[in-house]
Amino acid sequence: MDIVKLDLAKPELKLFGISASPRIAATDWIVRAGLRYATDNWGAKTRYFSAHGKKINFCIHCDHCIKEGECIHNDAMNEVYSGFEWADAILIGTPVYQGTLSGQAKVIMDRMRAFVASNPHALRGKLGAAVADGGDRIGARYQVNT
Ligand SMILES: Cc1cc2nc3c(=O)[nH]c(=O)nc-3n(C[C@H](O)[C@H](O)[C@H](O)COP(=O)(O)O)c2cc1C
After folding, report:
1. In the list 34, 61, 103, 134, which could disulfide-bond 96, CB 3.0-4.6 Å?
2. Which domain holds residue 97?
3. pLDDT band at 7 (very low <50, low <70, confident <90, very high)
4. Is 144 inside a domain boundary?
5. 136 lines ligand 1 (CB under 6 A)
6. In which band, very low, low, confident or very high, does the pLDDT at 2 lie, cut at 50, 70 and 90?
7. What is the total count of domains within the chain?
8. Which residues pair with 130 in a beta bridge?
9. In this structure, what CATH number is given to the domain that contains residue 74?
10. Domain-embedded: residue 23
11. Mutate to test the pocket of ligand 1, among 52, 96, 101 (most ligand atoms within 8 A of CB)
């Protein structure tokens, strides 16, 4: 597997932040803080998407994306697809729900199938990072090996 390193010296690093919380609260704050850090310290350009108030349909496994290269749904995921296309790096934040990611985060991840179906190399070279915030059991139970 290739190891992708973030080139902080690159002019105008493009960072896309996603908050997969239905609220404007902790996750929103954390992801925005990450974007602000990247701007202040690395001169990054940033874009932000919050799931708050957004209509995002479930993946219905119709395979339209596999056959036609685009999702059958026309909803707020278009903004997410556009952000992924634009970005060099992506930061996804999720609140912890029942020891795992939020439903919104899961749906966003499922719907990314269409993004990759449109171009199997669409994520190549992009760096991803994730943050999870919880209220009591303090975070999710999964480990991500990068
Ligand atoms: C349905 C639901 C399930 C939750 N499950 C957990 C959990 O398993 N562990 C935990 O630490 N916090 C849990 N919480 C608390 C949230 O993760 C926590 O309040 C989080 O900071 C909310 O993020 P937000 O302010 O961006 O919405 C849960 C909250 C909800 C609504």
Report:
1. 134
2. 34-133
3. low
4. no
5. yes
6. low
7. 1
8. 92
9. 3.40.50.360
10. no
11. 96
